[in-house]
Structure formats: structure tokens, C-alpha cells
Amino acid sequence: MRKSEMFRQRYGRWVLIIGGSDGLGADFARDITRRGLNCVLIARRLPVLEALAADLRAETGMEIRTASIDVAQSDAVDRLAALVDDIDLGLVVFNAGADSSGSTFLGSPLSMWQDIVRRNVNVLTDGLYHFADRFVRQRRGGLLIVGSAAAFGGGARASIYTATKGFGLNLGESLWAELKPHGVDVLTLCFLVGDTPVLRSALARNAIPVEAVGAASTIDLARAALDALPDGPMLNFDEDLAAPNPLTSAAARREHVLEVSAGLEHFYGAPDPARA
Ligand SMILES: NC(=O)c1ccc[n+]([C@@H]2O[C@H](COP(=O)([O-])OP(=O)(O)OC[C@H]3O[C@@H](n4cnc5c(N)ncnc54)[C@H](OP(=O)(O)O)[C@@H]3O)[C@@H](O)[C@H]2O)c1
Question: Is 274 domain-assigned?
Fold first, then answer.
């Protein structure tokens, strides 16, 4: 069976991409439509979404829905759920999640950090809960969380960003172990630097050329993550760039998740089969 046919069988006809208007999110949409699936694209700037949707329809003939939803708002998941209620949805990509402010914790108003926490923690949790439940019921699906190498530890000028990315990685790893028996794949993509418009404008503020930071191509990142979806819980795109390290190694982290999961099953007993 062809790779794109297997992908369609596993993930259904439609994919929801949260943060799907430019950069990495747009390359997820390009790759997914070329694999023969339709997309629902979410971002705040509707004209950017609509321009991408027109290109994708013209290039691939697939169906594209767009909606402007700010996923830093607490009602975001209700709005997302209503938008995809009537379609055969099989994959959700949680892409929106950057913070390129470079601000110290006290250097920005608390409200800015609260927006990032709502988007990267609260709405991520609500979205994973809603779509995991839907996918467990249909006994197939995928949840792809775009994380970051920032998930591996904290650092000055990235306090809330690294904290929220650490939250996403741990949650994704746990859900991978819980949802695998129900036919649902969960993968968190981690990488150091990606060549996105957000990165480029952050570098431009300090007159740093994009070539100087070794940014990965978003085409390569999207393809690698979509290919690795069945092989969670984590893909570290840059794993080969550094010396072997159990903190950043996909295989070592998978072993750790399996050990913790087995230990906790022994401790708490098997989960109630009526609930996933
Ligand atoms: N760029 C890097 O070097 C890098 C490195 C490691 C990890 N990552 C991760 O890669 C992902 C993509 O990063 P990125 O650099 O492309 O920047 P990003 O701002 O996280 O993602 C851009 C996409 O998300 C949308 N978006 C952002 N905030 C949103 C919100 N509140 N509501 C709805 N849509 C929103 C943007 O469209 P609108 O602006 O129109 O809303 C755009 O479509 C993030 O999760 C980031 O943490 C990036």
C-alpha cells in the first residue's frame, strides 16, 4: 500500500491545524494535502489563512476550511469543536506556541505570560481532552503537539516558554502511553530552531541573518513529524547534532515513559475499561 494511502486510512479524511497559516503550520498543510487529506486551518489573521487555502485548493484540489480563532482565549476549544463536528476528523496538529519576545519574567506584563499559558497549557489541555475522547470513540486518530528543544530545561529569557513546552512534552508522552491501546497516536515534535516568519522577525530585530542560526527547514520538520506520527512519544529532530543524552533521546524517553507507566499500573491497578 502507498504511504499516502496508509496515512489516509490511519487518520481519516480531515486534519485540523491550529496555527496553520504560515511557516511550519503552512508546511504541515502542504504536506497533508499532498497526502490526499483535507484541512481545517486556524490562526488569527484571516487574510493569511485565506491566501494559503486558495493556493492549496489550486495545487491539490483538496477541501480547505479556514477560521480566525485566537487560541489564547478560553472558549477556543468550544469554537474549534463546533467547526469540525460534522467531518471525518482523524488528526489534530497543535502548532501555535512560540514566544519570541526574549523578555525576562519581570520584563513583560503578567497578562502577556497569562496569554501564553492559556494558549500553550489551558487550551492545549482542553483540546487534547476533547479530541482524544473523540478519537478513542472512533478507535483511530492522531494528536501532534509541536514542542521545542526548550522543553528539555529552563533558561533566562525563556521562563514561561520553556515551562509551557515542558508541560506539553510530559502531557504528550503520558497520553501516548494511555491512548496507544485505543489506536490513537500521540507525538511531540521537538527541535531547536525552525525557519519561520516568527523566527525571522525576531532575528531581524537584532540584525542577525537567518543563516547564522542553523534553522531547520519547515518542509523537513513537517515531513519528519508526519512520518514519525506512529512512532511516538517524541521526535527530537536535532537528536544527532549533540552527544547522546537520555534527556533528549527519543528512544531513552520512550523507555522511561514505558517504565513509569508500568510502575504506576502496578501501583494503581489496571484502569477502568469503561474510561480510556
Ligand atoms: N521558530 C522556531 O525557531 C521554533 C523552534 C522550536 C519550536 N518552535 C515551535 O514551533 C511552533 C511554530 O512556531 P512559529 O515560529 O511558527 O510561531 P507560532 O507563533 O507559534 O506559530 C505561527 C502560527 O500560529 C498562529 N498563531 C500564533 N498564536 C496564535 C493564537 N493565539 N491563536 C491562533 N493562532 C495563533 C499564527 O498565525 P496568526 O499570527 O495569524 O495567529 C501562525 O499560523 C511553535 O509551537 C513553537 O513553539 C518554533
Answer: no
